[in-house]
Design a protein that fits this description.
The protein has 253 residues and is an alpha/beta fold. Helices cover 28% and strands 19% of the residues. It has a domain of 177 residues: 3-Layer(aba) Sandwich (Rossmann fold), CATH 3.40.50. A hairpin with a 6-residue loop joins strand 6 and strand 7. It binds S-adenosylmethionine (SAM). It comes from Sorangium cellulosum.
Length: 253
Amino acid sequence: MHRRPRLVAPGAALAALLTGCSATPDAAAPGSGEHAGHHGGHDGHHGGHDNGAGPLVHRFERAEDWVAEFEGPERDAWQKPAEVVAAMRIAPGMRVADLGAGTGYFLPHLSRAVGPTGAVVGLDIERDMVRYMTERASRERLANVTARQVGPADPGLDPGSVDRILVVNTWHHIPDRPAYAAKLRAALRPDGAVVVVDFTDTARHGPPKEHRIAPEAVAAELRAGGLSPEVVAEDLPDQYIVVGRRADAGAAR
Ligand SMILES: C[S@@+](CC[C@H](N)C(=O)[O-])C[C@H]1O[C@@H](n2cnc3c(N)ncnc32)[C@H](O)[C@@H]1O
């Protein structure tokens, strides 16, 4: 995890691929008139601004509406799930939570990383995402994977219960992030870490720029929640990774 920090992703001149959040700022959400009407897709008509006023408010009510976007075959090329999971420094037997897991894109990767003695839980505010993840775990025989619905301001994890918490393309949706970070910290085991992956300001996809959070700002929010943050080096073309360790921990390095 302790590689050379790189604060800005290289190579902004990448093909405009579909995003883990939304392809374009103006795109209507797939399939849902409610999405399109209330939110203009992920990014069109939301309220609040991360660069000043609050989280990106957007709903992902119907899982099947998002499968093509979240699970498209082209995503692996820019999401680089193996690299993300490597940055998490997961050991067999660990307990890992995927916060804002959506359709569960990361679940098979996390399942493999923790192995049969470990456990992975996908958390999401959307009941239908939880339904989809549960069915997916069964369909893909991910015996160590479960899914659970959580409230928007609480990860619903027991104190000291998990080794890693992955937050991909979701941190910018979280309200009152310093307070939320403190809740994540409480859920970590002593050597645990939160791993936030989100879009750089130069990314060709993702939320509109006013909702992108700089990695230094994520680090500050994690620090405010009692975590010890580090922007880690990676080769993701559109995203950064910030790792927040329990400040009293000596491991997860
Ligand atoms: C852009 S999707 C990312 C899904 C997944 N992490 C991925 O990379 O494919 C954001 C997800 O976060 C969920 N979400 C939004 N706010 C949340 C919150 N406060 N707590 C938990 N999940 C949340 C949404 O319902 C949605 O499924």
